[in-house]
Amino acid sequence: MSDAGNWCLIESDPGVFTQLIAEMGVSGVQVEEVWDFDNIANLNPVYGLIFLFKYDQNTAADTMELDQSQHSTTTDHVFFAKQVINNACATQAILSILMNRNDIDLGKELVQFREFAQDLPPDMKGLTISNSENIRRVHNSFARSEAFVNEQQPASGQDEDLFHFISYVPIHGALYELDGLNPAPINLGPCTDADWLSKVRPIIEARMATYSSSEIRFNLMAVCKDRTLVLTEQIDAADRKIENAEKKLARAVQTLRSERELLSVFLSDEQEKRERYRSENARRKHNFIPLVNVLLRKLADKDKLAELIDTAGRKANERAARRRELQQQQVQQQGPAR
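Structure tokens predicted for Ubiquitin carboxyl-terminal hydrolase:
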């Protein structure tokens, strides 16, 4: 691995990584720090994980020797780049996730970069990253005078802790560990988009357990869909549910109103019937025949009798037609409501 050259150290921070990804032209992606695996599902969809840990060359060599059987022999479907320069492991870990996802809008420049480098061997991919003016410019724009991450041996020769970034990402039905210091990707077994987070958890926890109890300097970050987009989509979905519920409620209210109107007609009929009963019962107690005969003769003499008969018949027909109309509306509206 070459010297740091003109690649600076950058801070392990989700805000830095989110802005770095955006300035590389990627849309709809952000980085969130993971404090608790139990709550990581709240960030779904999660595209990949970036793990920062203290780097021990002796431990790393032992781990690489144990993991040789897991190194993928076929990497055509995995975008894997060797890390050929110092200080670039943060950006390389991010690219390891972005380059292996087909559900991320990479932007024009990274799409062209992936198309150019896809078929290159891992070491040439690493050189292509190091020689990318756009990627190096964005990376160096986040330079800090004091950074948490340090992959360089101090010039003084004194011991200093080194830290390193690696990525975990599901690719074509398998969980991969992508570490630019390894010769190839490590296939950690089959997975799906639904269960890969549960499968990577014990792997990361086991890696942390290899350190002494006094070592707590770990950092885990999730590369996930932009939460503003996720929340906006959820709000839109809630609005659609509200609209559908309001439409169903409006239909139900209209049905109930029709039912009420029909019941009101029935009630009016019943009230009229009761009034008629009272009138009829009153007439039963009195002899109105002489009076009726006189009235009918008077109405007939004035040519009013036929008009009154027509009016009474028309009102009776109108009430009957209205009842039929309301009954028909009730049947039609109750059908879709069920």
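Residues 252 and 337 are 6 Å apart (CA to CA).
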